[in-house]
Amino acid sequence: MVTGASSGIGRATARILRERGWDVVGVARRAERLVALEEEIGIVGFAADLTRAEDVDALAQWLQESGPVHALVHVAGGARGVDAVEDGRPEDWRWMFEVNVVSTQMLVAALLPLLRRAAAADGHADTLFVTSTAAQAAYAGGAGYNAAKAGEAMLAGALRLELNGEPIRVTQIAPGMVFTEEFSVNRLRGDTNAADSIYEGVENPLTADDVADVIAYALNAPGHVNLDLVTMRPVAQSAQHLLARGPLHPRL
Question: Does the keyword Oxidoreductase apply (predicted)?
Answer without folding.
Answer: yes
